[in-house]
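Technical appendix A lists one of the benchmark inputs used to test multi-chain prediction within the project. The record comprises two sequence entries:
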Amino acid sequence: MRIGSHELNLEKRSTLPAWQAATISLLAILFALTIFSLIFILAKVNPLVAYREIFSYAFANRFGLPLTINRFIFLLLCTYAFIIPYKAGLWNIGMTGQLYGGVLGTFAILFAAGGKEFDNASLSPEILIPLMLIAAALGGAALGAIAGFLKGRFDVNEIVVTMMLNSIAFWLVAQMIKEGGPFMNPGGEGQSFEVPLSVRAPLIMNIPFTIFLALGVAVLLHFVFTKTKIGYQIRAHGHSPAAARYAGISTTKIPLMVFVLGGALAGLAGYHYYAAVPGVYKISGNYGYFGDLAFYGIICGLISLGDPLAAIPVTLLFAGLSIGGRNAQGAFHMSFGVDYALLGVLMITLVVFQFFYRYRIVWAKTEEDRLDVGVRR
Amino acid sequence: MWEFVARSLEASTIFLFAALGELIDQRSGVLNVGIEGVMLFGGTLGFIAAQSTDSYWLGFLAAIAIGGLLGLMHGFFSITLGADQVVSGMGIWIVGFGLTTYIGAPYTGPLGMDRIPTIFGLSPFFYIGLALAVVSWFVLFKTSWGLRIRSVGENPSVAQVSGISVSRTRYLCVTIGGMLGGFAGAIYSLYYNPVWNYNFLMGWGFIALALVFFSMWNPLILVGGSLLFATLWQLSLNPQLVLPGLLSRYVWRTVPFVITIVALLIISTKWFRIRWGAAKPEALAKPYSEE
């Protein structure tokens, strides 16, 4: 495209420096929020007022901030559940199912320990809480393993498989908590029994200990991807499975491994939301909502370009936006699903901006006006 | 019993339309993993348009229009921009899931219109779907248009050299595919189950995607696949018809999804690939730039 004596060109990027990637991601988020203003304008709410309400509730409110932090922990684990397979070039959209697997594992331990009846003193939390965590990770990993094994061994499309597993796990949770299922609440229909007081996750300044778990995973993953052989193998598989196979990397094991790890983290996210967040401590009747939220993990993973450390601020922002959006929905009497709409707008902006990760716009003088005429590019 | 058969046939129509659209996409070499999103959009906007104008025609028109638009958008990302088709498709799914939840929320509830008249106990869509499958098969395998589409999906550079416009053919296919997807969503929300609820499809679009792999990219086999999965779906809703009292109704609900995974596994085995494997469009999901 030519404007005056200057020309607008697209050039394919050969490398993408970190600061440029960060700038593009930041622009994408700003762009999405601008587009999202439309939703507020259509609902006759001043977008500036709406955003002030969203951000102040999410990050500076006595009630909102803990919600944001809890959601941040949840989303960060879901994001890693997406990122690890993504690094290997595979798509895990089964965080939802895997977190249901995790929550079923958690409650299975409680059920086995008699959690449906016992009160405070019966079993020591020092044993039960680690057991619950392990069971959560195993539950998620089991679902992940199905997708990973099928992908690695038979090259079955992992997107369809993980999505099918989401639906399967959704109904299995219903089976366990509804209509006389083993985890059903003795008092109320359609939800699980409550986590007994003594084995609720320890809080540090009112925040569940799972935050250290999530941040620990961040550091660990960063180390694994940058410094270890296995991280290198995962990335190699992501660039080209065929090339990886020639280099002696097992294309059967890598998909299985990334999905098991991803699934385990999603399982822990399930433990976090249903057994560690103050005020929840049960599988509520609308458990599907938290499952839907897990899809934010896809967006966080894509915007942070699969970088475990970059995912932290991105996830914190989106956790705040989804909490603040929910609050704005009530405050401005908007219809249900503001946080879902935000999810959609962010995603489509991101797809558009994918382009800029691969191309850059060059703004230069047209060739005739250059001094170095005759040097054709 | 007839009611069960009729419901299965109606459900198969929805799978058939959606999967037929996806099949046409994929035959031209474009993978759209976001049909679920296209269907959600078609179903939701179709529902809103039909309810507010009290006209089924406008409802279906709106659904086809938004479906075509989303198909074009996917085309723009994956053909013109050469983006990763999975990223774009996932984007369309999540956009569909997120935005329709918000847009449709005020319309939650039953449609409240007279039922669409039936022909011999089945909706007209059933017959249209069957006819469309036969027509697509004929066009794809017996006409020069079909040859063009298939050659673009198999080997775009050769197609280009022999004078076929790769991007034009692909744009046409993704737009038609999107329209069919939007229409399928509207059949669900306006006829099959005329009650709007957020995320009402619960994975039908993804089953349709699996059906395309399962059909070996042949519209006639697709008809059989749609019938099979629709029957399974109905059985999972009415387990008392097969094995009364065996498993709880929630476990039955998982059956179609389990069978989808098993079916995908079977067609992915080495034995199956050697026997039938040549059907997959060679250039599927690979961006192509005309240079």
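Chain A has a mean pLDDT of 86. The first strand of chain A starts at residue 2 and ends at 3. Comparable benchmark entries are summarised in Table A2.
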